[in-house]
Amino acid sequence: MASNRPAPEGPSAYEFDDRLDDRGAFPGPGDPGGNGDGPWEEWNPTEESVRSVRGKHRVAKQRSGGLARGGTVLGVGVIAAVGASGMASAEDRPPVPISMPDVGGMADDLSDALPDAASLPVVGGLISDAGSSTDAAPASGSTVAAASGPLTQATRTGAEDGSAGPGEALRSRILQQADAQQGAAEQEARDTAEHSAVQLAEKEATAHQQSAEKAAAAKKAAEMEAKRKAEEAARRKAEAERLAKLAQSFTAPVASFTLTAGFGEAGDRWAADHTGQDFAAPTGTPVKAIHSGTITQAGWAGSYGYRIVLTLDDGTELWFCHLSSMVKTSGKVNTGDVIARVGATGNVTGPHLHLEVRPGAGDPIDPMPWLRDHGINV
Prior knowledge:
Blueprint: H1 13-19, H2 66-85, H3 103-113, H4 121-132, H5 141-148, H6 153-161, H7 166-249, E1 258-259, E2 277-280, E3 286-288, E4 293-300, E5 306-312, E6 317-326, E7 331-333, E8 338-342, E9 352-358, H8 367-373
Antiparallel strand pairs: 1-2, 2-9, 3-8, 4-5, 4-7, 5-6, 6-8, 6-9
């Protein structure tokens, strides 16, 4: 039973040092300066003398025989304390047995009872990540701290819930960042490709539109040219038809002739420039009505000799001069009717027909263009 008396105060470390002899050991019973407590006996604790270990003991990390040295030092300290206090030095009492737990054995037993580090929820995950990936092992100092330090409430909760630990979370974050960077790069590549495709499509559309516009302009120009040519051909055809029709209603004044003096020529026998066209032919050659009309004058006209004036329906006057004789002197005549004969009357040098054309009974014009316009080739 425990005693209520206070335990005697043991000697201090300095007092222990004073009691050491020259060899650095405690003196025995027979040594000079001994306390006379009696002879020292060898203490060999047995199973009966060793007190049973109760309660929980915190085991420090074993470091190359440190537990054995610590146990020896502790035993020496206890023995010194017991000897100094006199609790086991009474001559009339038997030596008090002292029990010391086998610290080294307990450490070995406790080490055997502890689970393997790889089986721990958090540390095992870190060890597994370190073994599977060389890049993930030294990724963060917080991972090492989490593996070596005590488990926090969040870590224990994650381990109990079966969720990922800090190592797996770090790995997941790294993978997420890599995926995000890869996704951003792929999206940028897609955007660049789409922009290039849009620009190419716009360029091709512009080129196609320009080509289509050029083709349309060329087609329109070709159509306009074809239309112009068609219109020109139609106009020529219409003119040919008109001239053919006029040829049926207009005819040359004489059938056989030679063109001599033309319109506008100057000569000694004329008071002014020549006002008509001369058709040289033998005397008595028939003179025909160029077109249907009415004979408005017939007779002697001075320097013109015998002259017949044929007025057409549009008011144009045709003068036939230097006639040798007149067949018709009045009335309506038709195209091709013989109205007179070639002669050399008036101011002439030889037989010929002098023809003048006076539109609207006015001044004379060149008869040749007028005859060609009416389908007469002379």
